[in-house]
Write a structure and sequence with these properties.
hydrolase activity, alpha/beta, 19026_t:CDS:1
Length: 261
């Protein structure tokens, strides 16, 4: 009955373009994989809502969500290949580039294998326990831990902690902390270390600036310029990421927190 009603009462009054789009939506004709990926990339690059895609591309909101989920699942399968901790020759290269200024930074330090920082990804308030996701800047977020190398490439990411969780605690809950704690020589070998901000505790493998206060000596202030400058790798990397994928500039609307992560 629905099919008969559609053809008799609706289809004759549609233009060619409207008829084609309605036909696809009505009979759930699947778009090619290429077009599905194109829709998701267009959504990510322009940062538009799924309702805008429905109006401009003639694809239902449900299909946009479905295409996005499929795309992200496939992308996650490639995570281990694309986001890798530096080892061997690559590790040596990263240390040399951090030390000798190939990164274009004003200040440099020896034996650095990565720069680490947290970032708050804005989200719409979840239905349950929304207060847990309010961060120190008073907006709802997911706390993202990231490490980048000398060229601003992500070598580690950890997402999922609520915005109210302190950056140091996020690190202690991450797999990176677990791996370093159980096999430091494999992850941070030979006196190398990660650069972090003052939020983290000082470790043999984690260097941070001196706490910023009036009693710092001249040498301490001069030293602080180096890790602060090297952390620009992170800001630059995330700036590039947000510039390319503008969806990161707006709040993520999703009631299922597992899907957000």
């Amino acid at each position: 009955p629905k099919t008969v009603g559609f053809w008799i009462n609706v289809f004759p009054y549609l233009t060619d373009d409207e008829g084609y789009n309605s036909f696809q939506r009505h009979f759930r004709i699947t778009l090619s994989t290429f077009r599905q990926i194109a829709i998701v990339l267009w959504r990510f690059a322009n940062g538009v809502g799924i309702w805008v895609l429905e109006q401009t591309l003639g694809v239902s909101q449900g299909l946009v969500i479905h295409f996005t989920d499929r795309f992200l699942e496939a992308l996650l399968d490639l995570e281990q290949e694309r986001i890798k901790w530096p080892q061997g020759v690559q590790l040596t290269t990263v240390i040399q580039e951090f030390e000798h200024g190939i990164t274009g930074l004003e200040h440099n330090l020896p034996n650095v294998i990565g720069a680490m920082d947290g970032s708050h990804i804005p989200i719409h308030p979840p239905i349950n326990n929304s207060s847990r996701f309010v961060n120190r800047k008073n907006f709802h977020s997911i706390n993202l831990l990231r490490v980048v190398d000398s060229r601003g490439r992500f070598t580690y990411i950890y997402a999922g902690e609520a915005g109210s969780v302190h950056d140091a605690r996020v690190f202690y809950r991450s797999s990176l902390y677990y791996e370093i704690s159980h096999n430091q020589e494999q992850w941070v070998p030979g006196g190398s270390y990660i650069i972090g901000d003052p939020a983290y505790l000082l470790k043999t493998y984690l260097m941070k600036p001196f706490p910023d206060h009036d009693s710092l000596t001249i040498h301490e202030r001069q030293f602080n310029k180096k890790p602060s400058s090297m952390k620009m790798c992170i800001e630059r990397a995330f700036g590039y990421l947000k510039g390319r994928w503008r969806i990161l500039l707006s709040k993520i609307y999703c009631t299922d927190l597992e899907r957000i992560v």
